[in-house]
Write a structure and sequence with these properties.
Layout (H helix, E strand, L loop, with lengths): L5 H11 L8 E6 L2 E6 L6 E2 L3 E2 L1 H20 L6 E9 L9 E10 L3 E10 L5 E10 L5
Antiparallel strand pairs: 1-2, 2-6, 3-4, 5-8, 6-7, 7-8
């Protein structure tokens, strides 16, 4: 069971990480998972008309942050210690990106999760990310 509702998480992110909204907007939150949407605009595109890698990395990172805090509560200082991304196919530049994070393990000090990113309206994965987060001892 998540310890934060989607409303509580949205409020927390707005207060503690307001710049995060440019990296994605929380659309759903559940038990060990979160979904985010990135409304793609020209600021996210790179030459060649595709969504930039840094935009997708940021989306994956914020999605993992939301999934983790949904499980452990509002721990602002949980931080990324590792992010690995594989770009699988070219995302559509005219569609929002949808990211889904599933937590694989949440321990006392570390959490590991996976994020799949796809273009809205397609089931094809455009990027797959694995992340590890450090959870501070003092919560």
């Amino acid at each position: 069971m998540p310890v934060m509702t989607i409303e509580q998480m949205s409020d927390f992110l707005a207060e503690h990480f307001p710049q995060g909204e440019k990296f994605g907007v929380l659309s759903d939150l559940g038990d060990s998972w979160a979904e985010m949407r990135l409304p793609v605009d020209t600021g996210h595109l790179r030459p060649g008309g595709t969504v930039s890698g840094p935009s997708m990395m940021a989306l994956a990172d914020v999605c993992m942050y939301a999934a983790l805090l949904g499980q452990i509560g509002p721990v602002a200082l949980a931080v990324t210690t590792n992010l690995n991304i594989n770009f699988m196919s070219k995302p559509r530049p005219d569609c929002d990106l949808i990211a889904r994070c599933n937590l694989m393990k949440v321990g006392k000090r570390l959490a590991v999760g996976e994020v799949w990113i796809r273009s809205e309206g397609s089931e094809e994965v455009v990027a797959h990310t694995t992340l590890t987060y450090s959870i501070p001892a003092e919560r």
